[in-house]
């Protein structure tokens, strides 16, 4: 597979929804497959909250396979023998694109001086990247979870840029419960003494707080069925209970492992900024309060996919978007898939999803 890892500085400052600008924006991205001479085979793949541009190649910090390697590659549902896939790290993140850890004009990390960003700001940076790459119109924009928010935002605000829009396990706005879970994670980070108001880059990082934030979020990505099947109430040591605060139960050990591993590849301030951007996301509010109006100018074909075990973005959220697309007269397909894994089903082995993705893109 023809893979390229690159970064690009946008030629102009990036205006932000909050009224400010980012004077210098660097976008880190990877490409897979070859761009057709007429540019007609490009797919923009948008990553989720803790994702990155390494969609189908080994992560440089962890060495683990790309987060959607099972979906992207030669002969796979997103076939890189046919399509040119572009996946960019969102602004505000920490894998090469401009974010809180980047240096400001004074040579010091932005930290909490980094401006508040929105999902639409992330997509505005993606559009700047596409312009710089000479990609005027995408064969498709594809995203799951927060990536699906970006796909919807591109369809609503740059309707001429994509022929197809594929949204998996996502929503057009965050619920109060989702905002509450994110706030729990943010408070865990900010309560860590090593956070130091965000100015920790010259010293120890707030790993304990970030690990707790990841643990809390990871519970929302799974389902009760998946946790019960994998762990139940199984003890680490079947012969004894410590009756203390060690990880007696296997599920406790699993969550602690998830938290500690996450701190090796993610920045705590980026977590604060990106979760806030997701919480602010409300596509209907951006377009006068009526979601159908967000898609009034779109000529794209849409496909939305939900999972019956996803309680983070349940099927009702996808149906809400589908109804709005119907009201706007947009061609849309919708399917709820059965999978036991919860929200993370879009990342795991669900053959029915493979068939939907492959069929829609073709």
From TrEMBL:
Q: What class of enzyme is it?
A: transferase
Residue sites binding substrate per the record: 214, 344
Recorded catalytic activity of this chain's protein: L-homoserine + acetyl-CoA = O-acetyl-L-homoserine + CoA
State the EC number(s). 2.3.1.31
Record-linked InterPro entries: AB_hydrolase_1, AB_hydrolase_fold, HAT_MetX-like
Q: In which pathway does it act?
A: Amino-acid biosynthesis; L-methionine biosynthesis via de novo pathway; O-acetyl-L-homoserine from L-homoserine: step 1/1
GO molecular function per UniProt: homoserine O-acetyltransferase activity
Gene Ontology terms: cellular component: cytoplasm
What is the name of this protein?
Homoserine O-acetyltransferase
Species name for this entry? Qipengyuania flava
Q: What is the lineage of its organism?
A: Bacteria, Pseudomonadati, Pseudomonadota, Alphaproteobacteria, Sphingomonadales
This chain is encoded by the gene named: metX
């Amino acid at each position: 597979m023809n893979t390229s890892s690159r970064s690009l500085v946008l030629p102009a400052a990036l205006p932000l929804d909050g009224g400010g600008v980012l004077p210098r924006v660097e976008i880190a991205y990877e490409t897979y497959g070859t761009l057709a001479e007429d540019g007609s085979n490009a797919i923009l793949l948008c990553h989720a909250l803790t994702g990155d541009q390494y969609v189908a190649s080994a992560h440089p910090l962890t060495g683990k396979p790309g987060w959607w390697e099972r979906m992207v590659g030669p002969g796979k549902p997103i076939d890189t023998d046919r399509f040119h896939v572009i996946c960019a790290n969102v602004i505000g993140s920490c894998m090469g694109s401009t974010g809180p850890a980047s240096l400001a004009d004074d040579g010091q990390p932005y930290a909490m001086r980094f401006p508040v960003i929105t999902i639409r700001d992330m997509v505005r940076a993606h559009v700047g990247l596409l312009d710089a790459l000479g990609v005027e119109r995408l064969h498709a924009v594809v995203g799951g979870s927060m990536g699906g928010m970006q796909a919807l935002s591109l369809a609503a605000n740059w309707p001429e840029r994509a022929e197809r829009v594929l949204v998996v396990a996502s929503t057009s706005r965050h619920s109060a419960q989702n905002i509450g879970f994110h706030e729990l994670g943010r408070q865990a980070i900010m309560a860590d003494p090593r956070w130091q108001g965000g100015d920790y880059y010259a010293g120890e990082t707030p790993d304990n707080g970030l690990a707790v934030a990841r643990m809390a979020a990871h519970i929302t990505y799974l389902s009760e069925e998946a946790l019960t099947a994998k762990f139940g109430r199984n003890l680490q040591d079947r012969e004894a209970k410590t009756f203390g605060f060690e990880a007696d139960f296997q599920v406790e050990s699993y969550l602690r492992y998830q938290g500690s591993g996450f701190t090796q590849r993610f920045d705590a301030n980026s977590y604060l900024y990106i979760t806030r951007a997701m919480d602010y996301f409300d596509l209907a509010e951006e377009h006068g309060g009526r979601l159908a109006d967000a898609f009034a100018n779109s000529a794209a074909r849409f496909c939305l996919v939900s999972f019956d075990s996803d309680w983070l973005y349940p099927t009702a959220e996808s149906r809400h978007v589908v109804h709005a697309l119907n009201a706007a007269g947009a061609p849309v397909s919708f399917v709820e898939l059965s999978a036991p894994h919860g929200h993370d089903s879009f990342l795991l082995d669900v053959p029915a999803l493979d068939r939907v993705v492959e069929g829609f893109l073709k």
